[in-house]
Amino acid sequence: METCDKNMDLETESAPRTLGNSKAWLKRAKQVIPGCAQTFSKSPMSFIQNVAPNFLVKAEGAHVWDVDGNRYIDYINGLGPIVLGHCYPAVDEAVRAQMSQGMSYSLPHPVEVQVAEKLCELIPCAEMVRFGKNGSDATSGAVRVARAFTGREKIASCGYHGWQDWSIGSTSRHLGVPQAVRSLTLTFPYNDLKALAKLMGEHPGQIACVIMEPVTFEAPQPGYLEGVQALCRQNDTLLIFDEIVTGFRLALGGAQEHYRVCPDLTCLGKGMANGYPLSAIVGPANIMRLFNEVFYSFTHAGEALSLAACLATLRELQQKAVMAHFWRIGARLKEATNHLINEAGIASQVACIGLPPWTTVRFSDARGKSSILLRSLFQQEALKRGLLTHGNHMLSFSHDDRIIDQTLNLYGAIFAILAKALENDDVAQRLEGPPLETIIRPI
Q1: From the candidates 72, 88, 160, 296, which is the catalytic residue?
Q2: 3-class SS at 68?
Q3: Where residue 3 falls among pLDDT bands split at 50, 70, 90?
Q4: What is the pLDDT of residue 362?
Q5: Which sign does the torsion angle of CA 192, 193, 196, 197 carry?
Q6: Out of 133, 154, 270, 384, which one is annotated catalytic?
Q7: Helix, strand or coil for residue 286?
């Protein structure tokens, strides 16, 4: 299925690449787009300049091509939405069929009902569904309806849940968020049940909901998710699982199916439509019916192309055993990556962590603190060899064993370079551009 224009065979040695068109487009973007991109994680601050492409123009299967014709194995996958692969035939055919009939109507389209019924079939906590476009739509709608349901204003939040005031106000990127709004969001660390219990004890009867990702790269300790659920029930607080990333990646029913812990509300997005913009809030009818009164309304929430893409994606996920594929190749990639790290002698500072369907390569300095310099060097050498990555492995169904073999072959060479840089203490000197920037810093 896949074709390419150049660099068909990836080599362990970095191949000469031209980036002239990419630099020219970046220069133009600087004049008209603040940050040069619509998403921080896709902007120049997230990539080593002078080495990274800045614009992509083609995608197919597990590969993407930049504006200069250079091909890359894509481990970013649009920040996670590409769950089946770029330009996946069954999804694109469904979209083309719907496109011939229209995409935005003056009344609901039956596909809204079909997708809602399918989500209620797949997601354990789902009895009713409302759609949005971005993950932030879903998390914010869930928080709003939780406040309406409980009559409370404060929320307890663990991790990142989008750009809206209530979420981003609790991070270092809170410029422009009123202090009054920021004060309503209380944060707690993951895997620390005592910290959450203490937070609830300090704000008795005031917390509307706990919102959290059930898992990222740190697995929940035995009983942790069950403990969070119990604390919420004891305090009449709703539990919201942000499964924007974990939905349709760990299991068809998400992390709640995998861990057998059912939240009150679930936020879905990313992988549900294979790259087409769509998100959803799902939950039990007694809570979801409040959306009859709670204002949650979008012109394009019922846009039919994305819903057709979602229906086709969900069918493929069910029929093709995609989840089993993620667990198998993800486990192989994680195990072999850590083996190569050990062979290079850098296991004290580099490790591949996370559940097999969604792993990341973690980089630490000699003190055990996160090392942006080491991660920058890793990304630089990966890009030079045709791997597009932030360090994460966001797999798609199109990432097959051949691609994993190519990746591991390249990793062997890259980790050898990292080992030499650590031995010579010249990591920073090896960078061919400014180091990566941290998007959200701890506060």
Answers
A1: 160
A2: coil
A3: very low
A4: 97
A5: negative
A6: 270
A7: helix
Q: Contact, 139 vs 167, CB < 8 A?
A: yes
Alpha-carbon distance 320 to 218, whole Å?
A: 28
**Rounded Cα gap, residues 132 and 135, in angstroms:** 8
Residue 368's pLDDT band, with cuts at 50, 70 and 90, is: confident
Q: Kind of pairing, strands 350-353 and 238-243? A: unpaired
Catalytic residue at 5? Answer: no
Q: Nearest-CA neighbor of 377 among 416, 307, 428?
A: 428
Contact in structure between 131 and 112 (CB atoms under 8 Å): yes
Amino acid at the residue 402: R
Q: Rounded to the nearest 10 degrees, what angle do helices 322-344 and 304-319 cross at?
A: 80
403: nearest Cα among 86, 15, 72: 72
Residue 443 CB neighbours (<10 A): 9
Catalytic residue among 118, 242, 264, 276: 242
* 349's tokens: 């500072």
Rounded to whole angstroms, the Cα distance separating 172 from 443 reads 6
- Type of residue numbered 93: E
- Concerning whether 259 is annotated as a catalytic residue, the answer is no
58 in active site: no
